[in-house]
Amino acid sequence: IVAMAFPDFETYHFLINGCPVLEDLSLHYHEDVNPPNWSGGVLCPSIKRMKIYHYFPSHRKAHDDVLFDTPNLVYLDYSSYVADKYEVYLGSLVEARLDLLSWERLNDNDGHVDNDDDDNYSDCSCGCCDDDNDNASEDEEAARASADYEDYWDSEDDVLGDATNLVAGISNIKTLHLSPDSLEVFHFCRKSMPMFHNLLTLSFESDKNRGWLVVPLLLTNSPNLETLVIKGLVHQVTDICGDACPCIPKKKTKTKKRRKKKKDVCCLSTCRVKVLNISGYRGTTRERKQMQHFLANLKCLETVKVGVKLNPRQDNHRRATNALMQLPRVSSNSHIHFF
């Protein structure tokens, strides 16, 4: 069977139960075609690869409960709004690709947000990216902060959906890919974030309207991580991105300059990452400072791969690559390659 449409979930279950040696399952549901007709459950011990696209933003009840009873599954590609409850049995899972959307965005209590580009990508807590230039006035910063606050709801209690059991159920994987929205969903699971002892490769995509708030915790809870892959470095600036990046809003930076704090140990300095793969690099100030932060703290780094999103025949491409090559590196064994 290559493809089949299910008029109701009873037909779906009847077919799945009639395929005792099924190894590859792909389910694609979205409200542009049909109303919800999937029960949210996959119970099949033979499945090894599974891809699910379940997207019904206008049907909240279609995302009530999700059950994955697939003990031999090795690869999961799952795109959906976060369900209210997950029950998963994924003991053999090796690789997961998640695109999870929260029903509500992060609230202001979870971190001040600053969407501007280079002007708000300021000093990092470890001091590796110190820059005393400050071009924005207090009034401009206050106006930005006020505008940003209005875009957020008031209480984390309003968050709909709970991915805690799903995150716990994939804690033994070796490779994890996360979308920008998934980073925020993982942030809501931070209080019960499991250890990812077997995780060797972490890959995530950035978006200028989504933060890196959970990245420091993910790195800390992945003690054997060897490869870090990031598609795009520009992300939403918040107060609590932690020390995985140097994006401290200038309003906070001014306070920091008035009273010097004791520098904490950067989470990157305890990270065992050997390979850093960055794509979509344009050579902006923000991106250069982020690369400077990585190179100054990743002590085990051996290979840095940078995909430059500029015309190689233009001068700005050469300036961007030369600037990266001149950045100091804490690892004397690291080598930078461009693609």
UniProtKB/TrEMBL annotation:
Name the record gives this protein: Putative F-box protein
Gene source species: Noccaea caerulescens (Alpine penny-cress)
Domain FBD: 266-339
